[in-house]
Design brief:
Blueprint: H1 20-24, H2 35-50, H3 53-60
Length: 72
């Protein structure tokens, strides 16, 4: 066994890390009165982002990440 020291920021180990700023964008400088309102805003943003696959892949699609298998 040997120790491997990682740099303080390793997006390759946590690909979703690069997507947080996209999810947080509609929340910046906004006030949500309830948790339900906050969930609705985040859900709407995630739904919008789900339709932008090319952009998501460019931010979090690392060459080593497993490919999506489509049923034949």
């Amino acid at each position: 066994m040997r120790l491997v020291f990682l740099p303080p920021y390793t997006p390759e180990l946590q690909p979703a890390e690069t997507l947080w700023e996209l999810v947080d964008e509609p929340l910046a400088n906004k006030y949500a009165a309830t948790i339900e309102e906050l969930e609705a805003i985040v859900a709407q943003q995630c739904t919008a982002l789900a339709n932008q696959r090319a952009m998501l892949k460019s931010r979090a699609g690392f060459h080593w990440w497993p490919k999506i298998v489509t049923p034949a």
